[in-house]
Write a structure and sequence with these properties.
This protein has helices at about 10-25, 135-140, 165-170, 175-180, 200-210, and strands at about 60-65, 70, 75-80, 80-90, 95-105, 110-120, 125-135, 140-145, 150, 155, 170-175, 190-195. It is α+β, with helices and mostly antiparallel strands and about 220 residues long. It folds into two domains: about 1-50, no CATH class; about 60-210, no CATH class. Strand 2 (about 70) and strand 3 (about 75-80) form a beta hairpin.
Amino acid sequence: MPFDVLVEGVPDEKLGPLLTQIGLVGVPSPVITPVDAGAGARASRAAAPMAAAALPTEWRLLKTLDDQTYRWPEYPEHYNPYEVYAAETPREGTVRIALGFASRPEKWGRTRRYIVAFLTGGTPATPLVEYLEADDFEQTREYLAIIRGRDGGRKMYGPTDTLPDVYTKHFTTQMYRDRIDYPGVWNKAVVVVREDDTATLLNHALVQARRRGDL
């Protein structure tokens, strides 16, 4: 059953973030009414809300660092290289996300290359996304990253779940177990991205940061 939702008294500085969140869940653009326009005035539908589709088209490499470390609960991990990027967004202004490159032993049956995306101003700070190499990485050079955010939290998306529009429109997706053949592998949706597609690596991390409320 569809619903009409009325949100009143939204201040100007909150309108952009609200439209972004509406776009993330795939709801049509809302009708916006300026408070000072009079009772009978109605604004037309927002032509281009700052939704999740408003992804940066260009990320700038700010610096490359060596031997950066992030301490996970189980172990410290070292990244070589560790690349810090920046982009301008309509909603957040300047966003800085870093990509740290590492290898992890005994991950789904073998040592695999990983790329970890961090929300950062320099050294590793808030981990956003973990990419791991697909089984056929040597042929495809492709990494996989879980998509989280189902039910507004950190739940993953199963084969019967509907992905947010931003993923169906701007990313290549598959199921984890289609690209990793090992007992116990999750049957969950992943973003598939080549190692040289830096913008997509960073944009998935940006979307996840928005959905988690890190930005």
